[in-house]
Amino acid sequence: MNSSIDLIGILSAVAVLTGLGIGFGALLGVVSERFKREDNPLVEQIDALLPQTQCGQCGYPGCRPYAEAINQGDALNKCPPGGEATIHALADLLGREPEPLDGEAQSEAKVAFIREAECIGCTKCIQACPVDAIIGAAKLMHTVIEDECTGCDLCLDPCPVDCIDMLPRSTPITQWQPVVAHSSNMIASDRQPASGVS
Amino acid sequence: MSMMHASGVKDANTVTSVPPTANLMRWVIAATLPGIATMSYFFGLGVISNVLLASAFGIALEAAVLRLRKRPIRVTLNDSSALLTGVLLGASLPPASPWWLIGVGMIAAIVVAKQLYGGLGHNPFNPAMVGYALLLVSFPTYMTLWAPPQELLPNGLWAQIAGTLPTAQLDSLSGATPLDAFKHKGEAVLASEFWATSPLPEGTLSAWRWVALAWLAGGVVLLAKRIISWHIPVAMLGSVLLLATLFYLSDPSHFASPLFHLLTGATLFGAFFIATDPVSAATSQRGKLLYGAGIGALVIIIRTFGGYPDAVAFAILLMNLCVPLLDLYSVPRPTGQQKASPGKPGEQP
Amino acid sequence: MSNAFDFPGGIYPPERKQRSNQSALIEAPLPRRVTLPLQQHSGQPATPCVAHGDPVKVGSVIAKREGMISSNLHASISGTVSEVSANQISIDGDGQDEWLRLPPLAWRHVESDALLERLNESGIVGLGGAGFPTHIKARVVERHAINTLVINAAECEPYITADDLTLRHHANEVLEGAQIVAKLCGAQHIIIGIEDNKPDAIEALKPALSNCQPISIELKLISTRYPSGGERQLIKRLLNLEVPSGGLPADVGVLCHNPGTLLAILNAVRDGQPLVSRVVTLTGEAITQPGNRWVRLGTSVRELLEQAGLNTPELHQVIQGGPMMGTPLLTLDTPVTKLTNCLIAATLEELPPPPAESPCIRCGECESVCPVSLLPQQLHWYARAQDDAKLEHYHLFDCIECGACSYVCPSHIPLVVDYREAKSRMRLQRIEAVKAEHAKHRFEFRQARLAREEAEKQARKQARQAQQRRPTNTAAASGEKVDLRGLRIAHAAAKASVKKAEKTLARVAQEDPKQSLDDLEMQLATAQENLKAAELQLAQAREQPSSEESS
């Protein structure tokens, strides 16, 4: 007698739990369908963190396609203009591990400069610039608008006479940044010794 | 660019401010001396040997870990925080505890609870209390053996070095603090009956009361020198008194009186010396009040309903867990803002 | 809990005013040479309008204001211009001290516009230390109603006694200057807020108050506490009003002025004298004749201090401003400017360098002294961690950088340095973010333009083929179905985008006419290009003979 009662007990427990599982699963499924968003805000957020240089060094034609690729699972560390800061920001946003930059880090902001004496007016650089920062027309002088140039380097290769230089961007004195040097390395890891090791 | 500092000017008028960190720690150590002296008077030199051993362990362990972390040793040890942890833990342990007990406690306190989190300023939990709680849970027999008030014989001290219990005195050791005895009196026994049977050795209760008053004296000195602010001790003691009074009034036969709670165990010691540790406590003034009140309430609740006789260590550790939450919810409203709630991104620079 | 008529926190540093407030205000000797930087004020630097070799008199305009927030610059000695560089103009004096004054104005009978123009011409800026051009500040009444003028005579920083001495010697003039400003901005009340550690100035003010016309001035004494002289803190103490975060005192109907500025305003209006000199406190243990001086702008700091008996071996540092918010000078060969209210020649014992910082022990002292009720401790952790989201959460930009927190810190952490670094970095990031957004819009516009050009090319090709009656068509030949419905949806979406962009542009243009609308116009243009491309594609698809309605 006892064993049959036990059996009924076990079966009813299993049945209840299974029923609950199915019920809640169905509820979750319905709700996720009903409240699904059509657009993908995560891609927008990823795109907002990228530097918008539109340089293509990540292998994608612009920052938005790279943002979509990251959303699909691509690596975070392909953006040299963004540098370490962007990799960490993306890692924080997506909950992934940050990796070291896959490529050379950029030392400082640069802008393109056309040496006008050598320009032949071929418009190849104008066609290459992703943000239309070069003004000019066929057989007429080309020049780079410094404020619009993002420093992406895409105009260097197409130029047949190689008359474009990348120069450091001029920062006005109002944007001077103080040099950060702290005497006690508070948040540093123990991998580097603190200053003033006895 | 702030070329003036409160500690650098001798002619600062009226209100003095908090002394530099190293001096702060040393003042706290100085303020424990009345309590330690009173405890030694009643419970023997074992108290002092505890403190000395614990301090030695503390400094040695901290120096060792700093060497491993490649941090400057002398400068860091100079802030006396390891010494302070040693003094506090040493004073909390039963007199003449075995040396290895003290060592284990200090490893938990200094190495695990403090240095592994990043050193001074980075530990979320009170290091001395972590050490104490670990020892209490791991070695309950050693931790609950308190000698009655008498001069501890030199044999006791030898036992400390040998690492054993002073077995010769085991008979005379009743092993009870007042709290301990009260907890284990049994449900059926009424409080009045319990005290009538004189459960503790002669003079224990009054000895503990003197010790508590000595801690209070040290605490008052700290308050006067502005080493600690009044918020945590007042909130904690207030909450202890309030809750104990409520319980006592509801059933005097089964609950201890508020004064009993206040003057026995580590209530006053905890209120002025342990709970006020700035690193693990809440920071804002409102937060400090809530923090102190929480500790006080937990102390009474655990003492009354929990399994351990004294609860200050656990109460403090539990409230340490709550400190990030307290800090988050006691943000003051900046002048010119509508509420204390988060600033909007892109606020006017 | 905010107290009425008081601000939270504050500290009581040693006042150290005795050294410089015992002697009367005197004129410093006329300098033989002055160097006048082109930027002695907030905003854009002035542009020189003299050249090397030009003769000038005291009060001649040597540089004109540039842009909206800027200020004129005048020669402070008479002589010849010896150098005009990108940053400064130097004048070699002839010792004659000849003046060129503007005609005096009877301010009670003159129109406000004339008064404003006089302020504009006179190069007056806020002399309390911030240097905001006064004529722009007076024009705040165009946007906000002002009902109270506060004269900020608190002078809460240690050492500084310039306003104290100015009030002792020129109380009547300062108050008359206040009447001028009140007339300009329409204030009906004037309050002068002064700390109680200036009994002589208070005594000098009392008779002057009774002569005041037309608006009576109220004198309010406040107990000495740093930083009562911060304008938000002072407004809270005097009027119990809180200036909103990110806003101006004008948002609560208040305008604040420094006594020195008001005196300069009177001199400019009544006597036609532009801003060519100011009161400077010379103090510190390393000079033997401390006190306050009327100094011609551009005087070398070295010359000034040496005339006051500078003891060079004892000198450790010279601080411009006060010990809490001033800056140590890197060299003594620098001129006195419109912003120099005090020079502290300090010895090593007087202001010892702070010991090295220790870790923060979370004691909370900093929080208890913050006059804005911020959490300096949290700001410190997050500034070191460069966690910008958290810094904004804890209102970093409400910090007035008064230094009370670093004054009390037991671990000697230079907190204000942390906040300044964090603010600089965040401001730069915001500028960069705006730039990146702008670059993105330019990129999108370019994509849209290329798409439209492509669509136009296809349309022309198709028209050509239709003319030649070729039966082939592009899409069907390749076997693709032309998705007419999809193109119609795309077209509708593009139309909606254009409408939305137009509406946004109109709304923003109406709200703030002076704001730059380039970025929004570009987004509108992008939407229009997309619309054009969609139209072309739709038209092209409709003409396809083999197009199908896809279900």
**Largest sheet composition of chain A:** 2 strands, antiparallel
Report the β-strand fraction of chain B as a percent range. under 5%
The tally of helices of chain B reads 16
The CATH topology of the domain at 110-170 in chain A corresponds to Alpha-Beta Plaits
The amount of helix of chain B comes to: 55-70%
Task: Give a count of the beta strands of chain B, DSSP E runs of length 2 or more.
Answer: 0
Number of helices of chain A: 5
DSSP strand content of chain A: 5-15%
Share of helix among residues of chain A?
25-40%
Overview of this structure, please?
The complex is a heterotrimer of chains A (about 200), B (about 350) and C (about 550). Chain A has about 200 residues and is mainly alpha-helical. Chain A has helices at about 1-35, 40-50, 65-70, 85-95, 125-130, and strands spanning about 110-115, 135, 145, 165-170. In chain A, the strands form 2 sheets. In chain A, strands 1-4 form a two-stranded antiparallel ribbon. Chain A has a two-stranded antiparallel ribbon with strand order 2-3. In chain A, a hairpin with a 7-residue loop joins strand 2 (about 135) and strand 3 (about 145). In chain A, helix 2 crosses helix 3 (about 65-70). Chain A is elongated. Chain B is an all-alpha fold and about 350 residues long. Chain B is built from 16 helices and no strands. In chain B, helix 2 packs parallel to helix 5 (about 100-110). Chain C has helices spanning about 110-120, 135-140, 160-185, 200-210, 230-240, 260-270, 300-305, 365-370, 375-385, 390-395, 405-410, 415-465, 475, 485-510, 520-545, and strands at about 25, 35, 45-50, 55, 60-65, 75, 80-85, 90-95, 150-155, 190-195, 215-220, 255, 275-285, 290-295, 315-320, 325-330, 340-345. Among the domains of chain C are: about 110-290, Rossmann fold, CATH 3.40.50.11540; about 425-545, no CATH class. The interface between A and B is small, with 7 and 8 residues.
